[in-house]
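G., the chain you wanted modeled:
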Amino acid sequence: MKLLLRFAMIVSLVAALLVIVASLLFLHRGGRLFIVSSPSMGRALPVGSLVVTAPGSKITSGEIIAFRPPTQPGTVFTHRVVSGNAAEGWKTRGDLNSSNDPWSIRPRDVVGVVKMDLSYVGWLLRSIPYLIVGAVLATGLYLTLKRHHRHLSVVVGITVAVSLYVYVFHPLVDATVMTSVTKGGVTRTALVNWGILAAKFSVNGGVAKVIQPGTVGAVTGAALSHGSTFVHAMACLPPWQWVILVALWLWPMGILMMREAPRAKHSYSRLPPARNISLSN
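Predicted structure as tokens:
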């Protein structure tokens, strides 16, 4: 068993070194990694996607490129090329946008051409700092608690890390308001669902509508006197997906209960036997 574990550790270290070397070579040759943070590309590049780019010698219409627009050189956009060439500049547009971007992209502005995208993998990468926080919390509890309670630290660490991450980033269900128009006492709002899950959205207490991830939907509701728009969202899942989601949330507690059950049974078995006590006058 020890030999097998040692072999697994060696294989893991070699694999990690190969990944590091390949990543350094990729970056040295102009490759870049980006996490999509806006829903403008719709289903082509959902929010939370990990985008891999590489330098391209010839850019044609229809390709998706990463670039720094001349008016915002500190920001990287990932949009589709709709027209143009290297000499005159390229026109770009997000798939969900109704008009082209207000700039022309020159070769010096291009970071790279999108070669690969991994949907939602970016959410996992963003979770790393929160997992570290959970690990630190779990370690602190592990060193503080008594020995037979130390497994509680794992449950607390996982729960805090996942809850904090979901609260901050809303990866499962969220939306961006694209347009909102009020007319005749009715507010019509166009929303883009950039969460991972399909969801029912309603505006100002109106009828809810299911909007799929990475798509735009229009919902209507009563116009409010102060002109505000309140969006309510709820995940829309079939029963089997709800079962999976609830199971993922409850599995740390299930592991805790399975670990506690044998210990509780063992403790009960060590209780002294009951004795009959006779009472006499």
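The CA atoms of residues 74 and 244 lie 41 Å apart.

Shout if anything looks off.
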